[in-house]
């Protein structure tokens, strides 16, 4: 079988399905069916039988929060990524507390004959003492004339600022000066030659003798994805700057997240959001660990910190509050990974762990406390008087083998349960260590391995004893040579693993992939689910694979078995799910073929209470011409799911599975009207509805 031969039987999901006439969609399905019968099936050779028992008596409910996402500040995922702040090192703190310091990536416009810049400790913010002093030595006229465009400073953002035509950008900054001022704030191209927007601040002497916050909007007249923010003048004098910010006025849910990237997450319909790491929570050293209390309150008062694990500064605009808000915006349950007094190179002994325990309990109060409580009032002042639904705390990051972990864990567990008995606590230790003496509600599992081993781990939980704490597989990914930067084979192997988790959802409570994001300019880890730069983004094959599982959380799992001779490369599951938009019910059958043979698959479904409708069912396939195929900015849709209608769907069907493919069959069980019959499709929101 030559795979290219079956391509005409697919409706590429890059074409919005709503724009197609419904009848044409089903005619194409008939053509595909005939093509499969006469040209493909005879070439398949290998046969298999899939039996599904859809009887309600044999149903197992998958947990409501089964599949979700894990965010770690790695690869500039947040700073310069999901968090929409365009200025890099907005508070000049990245160079450290000693002055003068490095102000990278800020640079000067002019030279040392007409401008001198240096950091000092004159800021009005006690938590952010560093500010930038700019001394201008030239004038608009006289002996020392400034260059025509003036002198000053500029910030290129995170590998260029994406400035879009006619869009509005919000500028805020703090200024102090005893001199008169004529300062131009502008958006320009990376070389400063193209002017996109400008605003002039004029002031007499003494107008800014105290630190003053200045805010205004800039509306761009043109588009440039590689822009910069610059502050220039032709007036001599000394000016101090601090907390210079540039934010798009349009962000996801108006909460500060980059709209395109947050929408990619929303389209997955995640049920959990685990945050903020990972090693990022720990730090190489505790002095650089994520401290939740230093990431809340006004952005300009957050000290920021150096992400010493992944090697870059973050202003912590994306802080504890923003993670909780993101989970709420996505309709996901937040899972907070706390620092339990350990870094990658240090650990606080049990005798002095009490302050860390109190810090975590305070963090829960921030998330859940009434506005009248100490920390609940801080959350309320940030605009969210209602409590966040924080119900899961993960104790550390795979630290069970560390000397003090178990003793410290017991102290955290007791303190949290004493104040919040409903919170579920996740242990970093495996299931065998959990006991009444070492209690846990869930235990954390991380799986990083090759594609072949990941496929074999589809049976990882088959023999796990039922009863007792369940697992949260909070990090899983194919790594190694065959993972590349996100290959088809890696996505397929991970799909097999997730099908195994579905089938063992009585032993597994939740799962989330890792890592989630990578800025293409700072790849610290590959592969990742979503790749982006300042203005582009695409999903890797494993991102599109996750769409096959977004209806699984809270769905009904049905027993299914595959019979096949001399071929152990198939994995399958079957669920019933309901489309929340139109109320229609579907039986979704997923089959993963991890081998190089096309499979003539016979499907037999028994026990259905409602008949399968003749029309309205859809087949979706994720595959490509090569196992190592990847998506890219140049070919973002090279490996994406492809849909085609299933004509004459019924309880007994014969179809062909492509080699190395993930296939789902969404079989319509309950249709509301004849009009919907012609146009209804599953609420899969795959590539066609992006």
Automatic annotation (TrEMBL):
The keyword ATP-binding does not apply. It catalyses: Hydrolysis of terminal non-reducing alpha-L-arabinofuranoside residues in alpha-L-arabinosides. InterPro entries: Alpha-L-AF_C, ASD1_cat, GH, Glyco_hydro_b, Glycosyl_Hydrolase_51. Keywords: Extracellular matrix, Glycoprotein, Hydrolase, Membrane, Secreted, Signal, Transmembrane, Transmembrane helix. The chain crosses the membrane at residues 24-44. Belongs to the glycosyl hydrolase 51 family. PANTHER family: ALPHA-L-ARABINOFURANOSIDASE 1. This is non-reducing end alpha-L-arabinofuranosidase. The lineage of its organism: Eukaryota, Viridiplantae, Streptophyta, Embryophyta, Tracheophyta.
